[in-house]
Amino acid sequence: MPSSGAIRTRYAPSPTGPQHIGGIRSALFAWLYARRHGGQFILRIEDTDRKRSVPGSVEMILAAFDWLGLDIDEGPHIGGPYAPYTQSERLELYRAAAERLVESGCAYKCFATAEELAEMRKAGGGYDRRYRDMPAAEAANLEARGQPYVIRFKMPLTGATVGEDMIRGEIRFENNKLQDAVLLKSDGYPTYHLAHIVDDHHMRISHITRAVEWLPSFPLHIQLWEALGWAKPQFAHLPVLLNPNGKGKLSKRKMKFADAAGQRVPVLVHEFSEAGYLPAAVINFLTNIGWNYGDNEEIFSVAQAIERFDLQAVNPANSAYPIAKLDWLNSQYIQRAPVAELCRLLRPILEASGYAVDAERLNRVAPLLQVRLKSLNDVVAMAGFFFADYESFQAPPADILIQRKMDGAGTAEVLRGAIPELERLDDFSHEAQHAAMLDYAKASGYRNGQVFGSLRAAVSGQKVSPPTFETMEILGKDESLRRIKLALASLADAGR
RNA sequence: GGCCCCUUCGUCUAGCGGCCUAGGAUGCCACCCUUUCAAGGUGGAGACACGGGUUCGAGUCCCGUAGGGGCUACCA
Questions:
Q1: With the C-alpha atoms ordered A186, A189, A192, A194, is the resulting torsion angle positive or negative?
Q2: CB under 8 Å to A230, separation ≥6 — which residues?
Q3: What does the pLDDT look like over A383-424, one tens digit per residue?
Q4: CB of A15 within 8 A of CB of A57?
Q5: Beta strands A107-110; A8-11: pairing state
Q6: Could you tell me the pTM of the whole model?
Q7: What is the ipTM of this complex?
Q8: Which of chain A's residues 12-51 bind strand B, using a 7 Å CB cutoff?
Q9: Which nucleotides of strand B lie under 7 Å from a protein CB?
Q10: A104 CB contacts (<8 Å, ≥6 apart)?
Q11: Among residues A53, A116, A248, A346, which is most buried (max CB within 10 A)?
Q12: How many Å apart are CA A379 and CA A84, to the nearest integer?
């Protein structure tokens, strides 16, 4: 059992499908705070809206945490001292709390029908509290007749509720602007408002972290904690991620395909792995939005973040989703990854594209790719040809072959002249090739870059490729020369 | 409409009254290096939303305006 002073944070998602990166960022902040203070991080499933529950969601949530390397101390999958961790299994607790509030006069049964509610809405304001002061006998009578009801909280009609937020400080709400919120629905399920308080209390949560959209109901929650007579935890309302253009909350629907440049932007956690991002890069990326490691250090590990993380230092402002920075960070992480690790990550991607991956070859190719990959997935386009059947190689079209400041005739001349020079080499190492091509370039009257660039395109078929001579070394002399000749043919076909 | 939150380069941010002629990163541009790509190096353009206060002094504190975001469900 944790001592009363233990730091305990939680992530409490609704099981409504794939995990959204915004939710995960909130979870990450809660997780970092718990780890920073040697506390516990709890996962709780808030499935009190039966209509919105999607089967398989819990597995997706767990997979997201697993991929990112965020460990969970207590949760529905592993249990814990305050189990169960799924709200639909804790209904009695909520019912008891609601009844206690009714008995103490802090809540009441409301028999308003859907039609009544609709009329009130049409009339302007919200619920007009028409059942708030109904005599107990009358209410008992309605109940006895089987009239369905909800339990509503009796919000104070006067005064103000002041909340303390770790990020923003004091926030003041006038009570007369607030409503009598539903605590227990007519199906016996609690609303979020009641359920999270009951659970956070029983689970000894010390810090409630949640997105800013919960700020408007903060006063309701404060009043509820007090009505229940429980000691309040600390609160931190986290800023949220906005769409890349800064307009509106980052949304699933809109973002799956859109950004300013019309490029696809990952929003769901599984899309990040699918897009070839490294989990460590994603964590670094997320941690740097709304919080920063400090002193101009952009790249840092989770362990480093844990050392310094503080909820009070979180920036209160929402942020546009700076997705371009993730590409840069990801390339940095790829550059720094050990070759063995990179191979391990690249292999399944190549295999998924249908390539048979030879371990030794991958080992030679991977280091050549490190400074060139933005995404792990780039390996397919950039280096797939190393693993393909050589027979299937297609000579690139002229526009790929002809480099900047070159024309078709010049390219053909350069390639044609290089053939005998390469053919002559007994040692086909990239060093030997380099030396030979340097001499050749000088003699040919073309610049090094013009010669090397033409060769790059000829043997790789690409404008961006691994280093040319290493590529040729791996392909071997015969295959390299074959490709140069194919390139010449391609140029001839194009009439250059 | 009402209520709440927010506001520094395009974007992510540093700044918690003098250290700011506002720093870093990304993106963009230029140059250098180079196996004309990529990476790397150097440099450049680029911001305190506006208006009032408070103060010897405000990006930093207060008020207002504007803009942005959110809530306003028997959803969370």
A1: positive
A2: A197, A201
A3: 999 999 998 888 888 888 888 778 888 889 999 999 999 999
A4: yes
A5: unpaired
A6: 0.93
A7: 0.95
A8: 12-14, 46, 48-49
A9: 2-8, 10-14, 23-27, 34-40, 68-76
A10: A227
A11: A346
A12: 45
